[in-house]
Design a protein that fits this description.
It comes from Streptomyces spororaveus. This is Ribbon-helix-helix CopG family protein. The protein folds into 2 domains: about 35 residues, no CATH class; about 40 residues. It contains 4 helices and no strands. The N and C termini lie far apart (about 40 Å). The chain has about 90 residues and is mainly alpha-helical.
Length: about 90
């Protein structure tokens, strides 16, 4: 867990209760659960940087068309993960 100063986050009671249950099931705290979530997600800037590096490793020029094709692929993956694919 980080040593930074604690803060408050406003959430509905239902969200707080769900976070508490998720943390309890994992044997951790809500704070640690939120820290894990925050560290496991990339910012848009980080995503863009990784996409540029991946394109370079594949010998591809990172153009707007390539970026859009990649975004489309990720959108389809997320749709399948969430069960919303048509």
């Amino acid at each position: 867990m980080s040593s930074s100063k604690p803060t408050s986050i406003k959430a509905t009671e239902a969200t707080r209760d769900r976070l508490r249950l998720l943390a309890q099931e994992r044997g951790t705290t809500i704070t640690e659960l939120l820290e894990e979530l925050a560290q496991s997600r990339l910012t848009r800037s980080e995503q863009e940087q990784r996409a540029r590096l991946a394109a370079a490793e594949l010998g591809l020029e990172y153009t707007e068309d390539l970026q859009q094709a990649g975004q489309s692929a990720w959108d389809k993956i997320r749709a399948h993960q969430g069960g919303t694919a048509a």
